[in-house]
UniProtKB/TrEMBL annotation:
Enzyme class: lyase
Lyase as UniProt keyword: yes
BP GO terms, sorted: ketone body biosynthetic process; L-leucine catabolic process
Span of domain Pyruvate carboxyltransferase: 13-279
UniProt pathway annotation: Metabolic intermediate metabolism; (S)-3-hydroxy-3-methylglutaryl-CoA degradation; acetoacetate from (S)-3-hydroxy-3-methylglutaryl-CoA: step 1/1
Keyword terms: Lyase, Metal-binding
Catalytic activity: (3S)-3-hydroxy-3-methylglutaryl-CoA = acetoacetate + acetyl-CoA
Domain of life: Eukaryota
Name recorded for this polypeptide: hydroxymethylglutaryl-CoA lyase
Length: 309
């Protein structure tokens, strides 16, 4: 009988921490040593997946320009995976050279976002990703897929759930073990998210889906709750609510991991994450960035602690 913190337990929800990548890609350039300390602290707090960085063009996203150094300096904790984003073969080869164990390819359900984010159409991106997935799989790496703009696009507005389902299925067919559905600009509401998950799960088994919510309109926790009701058991989030997307103006960070873990715990799910350690890590990285944590749960928990004597 698996324990409740075992991934095979029915009450387990996998939390994929994306703060060091999705969070820090939208900050001023953060020193490599701070990124490395953040990743190590997140793994120590019990997160089993910590998305570490991106092997993208430094001309496009200079904040991720130190990807090889980050990968060389993190302390790899057994049982923890450290995926990295790879938009093309050049990024993949660099990721392999840096010892990545898992990569993520990232497409969009909106043509305009695809062009702004990765400079190609959706169809071209799938062809590009096919080569990346094939080479990654041959090199023994696991491949995760993202679909951005599942509930709305900053350039086109509403996005048809059927378009999301098509891209998700294409990524599944390329060999992705998991497809993360990204509400990139946080516009979705529970009814819309349910409609998207419903459309996608007709083409991709719900066990292979993850929910990735930005909290721009304050809907992220409600949307995650709705996706749990639909059977999703993997949730992406960002410690302290760090981040945004450089190609989605006005988009705020992901939902805070602390808030997700607190909610999941109250719903009877287990995550294996030490909430207090996580909240301290969120407080620490926020101080490094010179601002308060974006996690309401962390603020509440830390306010209850006695001041240091
Ligand atoms: C895809 C490209 C490269 C196309 O960009 P491009 O300009 O069309 O690429 P290119 O092949 O023409 O190359 C241009 C230059 O970039 C170099 N280059 C080319 N590839 C790489 C690479 N991998 N690593 C390092 N360098 C690279 C290449 O060598 C060349 O250098 P030059 O000859 O000019 O000196 C570019 O658009 C890019 O890097 N985009 C990444 C954008 C990005 O990182 N966005 C944020 C992540 S997605 C996201 O946040 C959403 C998500 C996942 O969180 C989910 C959600 O919330 O929805």
């Amino acid at each position: 009988m698996p324990s409740s913190s075992s991934p095979s337990s029915p009450s387990f929800v996998k939390v994929v921490e994306v703060g060091p990548r999705d969070g820090l890609q939208n900050e001023r350039v953060v020193p490599t040593a701070v990124k490395v300390a953040l990743i190590d602290r997140l793994a120590d707090a019990g997160l089993s997946v910590v998305e570490a960085t991106s092997f993208v063009s430094p001309k496009w996203v200079p904040q991720m320009g130190d990807a090889p150094e980050v990968m060389a300096r993190i302390r790899r904790r057994p049982g923890v995976s450290y995926p990295v984003l790879t938009p093309n073969l050049k990024g993949l080869e660099a990721a392999i050279a840096a010892g990545a164990d898992e990569v993520a390819i990232f497409g969009a359900a909106s043509e305009s976002f695809s062009r702004r984010n990765i400079n190609c159409s959706i169809a071209e991106s799938i062809m590009r990703f096919a080569a990346v997935a094939e080479r990654a799989t041959a090199a023994g790496l696991r491949v995760r897929g993202y679909v951005s703009c599942i509930a709305g696009c900053p350039y086109e507005g509403r996005v048809d759930p059927a378009a999301v389902a098509d891209v998700a299925k294409a990524l599944l067919d390329l060999g992705c073990y998991e497809i993360s559905l990204g509400d990139t600009i946080g516009v979705g509401r529970p009814r819309e998210i349910r409609a998207v998950v419903d459309a996608v799960s007709r083409k991709v088994p719900v066990e292979r889906l993850a929910m990735h919510c930005h909290d721009t309109y304050g809907q992220a926790l409600a949307n995650i709750h709705a996706s749990l009701d639909c059977g999703i058991r993997t949730v992406d989030s960002s410690v302290a609510g760090l981040g945004g997307c450089p190609y989605a103006k006005g988009a705020t960070g992901n939902v805070a991991t602390e808030d997700v873990v607190y909610m999941l715990d109250g719903c009877g799910f287990d995550t294996g994450v030490d909430l207090h350690r996580l909240a301290e890590t969120g407080q620490w990285i926020s101080a490094e960035l010179g601002r308060p944590t974006g996690s309401r749960v962390a603020r509440a928990l830390l306010a209850k602690q006695p001041p240091p004597s």
